[in-house]
Amino acid sequence: MCYIIITCRSMLWTLLSITSFMMILAAVTSPHWLVGYARHHGVSSIHLQGMKNDTTASQPASAPTPTNYNPADHSPDSHDGSEDGEDLYRPTLGIFNRCHKLHQFQFLSKRENCATFVTDFLLPDAQFPDAWKAALVFFGLAGVLLLGTCIAAVLSLCVRSMCGKSIFTLSGLVQSIAGLFCILGLVIYPAGWGSDKVKGYCGQFSGPFDMDNCYLGWSFFLCVVGTLLCFLCAVLSIKADASTSSHKVEEEVLEGKNLICVL
Questions:
Q1: Which parts of the chain span the membrane according to its record (predicted)?
Q2: pLDDT of residue 100
Q3: What is the rounded CA–CA span in Å between residue 35 and residue 179?
């Protein structure tokens, strides 16, 4: 006979398990891991530098610089707020995506453009840092494990053992492994700050574990909180297992109840 057992601890563990998975997923897929230095709306120095290099390579040395390019306007240290009545903004960079402002053409309002910059996982380190590739793999493994624990958490309402072991303790073990994968991803991630991609957002002096003019965005901290929550869920899984096999639950089972709710 199937018994549906719900306790405060098991319900808390289930909700936190789902929350930790959603937090890790939201953090990894959002483009707000790094916040770049302030610049004008429009084509940022990230793209203008590429335009300048392409122009230099394809035209004679006397070819003029693009008319809308002013190095002073795109220097990391030249702006802190606004100048000439024009607001500044800070582009953001994620593990595989980025956000920046587009031009304001005539009456079109300024809007933010977000998209992935990864077209191939085997892109060179300058375009897609190898450290970020490794971090993305670790976060992906953690996400798969956490998704499995979310499914197990829902099944734990009526299934309390798997392969002769408690579904709670098995899920807690998997959550701790997922947390370790997340820690590896968080530790490896700053090693990619020395790539040319990051220098376009943070300045030429950025390097591994040195973000120069950038600062960490909310996605990084969300991932940290989600990682800590993984370990908290691993601990709570032991309490959840004990709560579903308490004397109160056994008494409810002996009374013939199929739906058992214990505070």
A1: 12-34, 131-155, 167-189, 215-238
A2: 82
A3: 25
> Largest Cα–Cα distance of the chain, in whole Å?
92
Instruction: List CB contacts of 47: < 8 A, sequence separation 6 or more.
Output: none
CA–chain centroid gap for 254, Å, is 47
Is there a contact between 80 and 39 (Cβ–Cβ < 8 Å)?
no
The beta-strand segments (E) located in 37-110 are: 39-40, 88-89, 92-93, 97-101
- Helices and strands counted in the chain (H then E): 7, 11
Q: How many CB atoms lie within 10 A of CB 248?
A: 12
pLDDT, greater one: 62 or 175 = 175
Q: What's the Cα-to-Cα distance from 86 to each of 40, 41, 66, 80, rounded to whole Å?
A: 7, 8, 20, 12
What mean pLDDT do residues 198-213 have?
Answer: 92
Mean pLDDT of 2-20: 87
pLDDT at position 19: 96
With a CB cutoff of 8 Å and minimum separation 6, the contacts of 89 are 38, 39, 40, 41, 100, 101
Q: Which amino acid is at 116?
A: T
- Other CB atoms within a 10 A radius of the CB of residue 141 amount to 17
Coil/strand/helix, residue 75: coil
> Cα(first)–Cα(last) distance of the chain, in Å?
23
* pLDDT for position 73: 46
Give dist(CA 159, CA 120) in Å, integer: 42
Tokens 């199937």 belong to: 2
Question: What pLDDT is stored for residue 205 in this prediction?
Answer: 92
What is the token pair recorded at 148?
A: 């499995």
Q: Which residues of 41-74 are buried (b: 16+ CB within 10 A; e: fewer)?
A: bbbbbbebbeeeeeeeeeeeeeeeeeeebeeebb
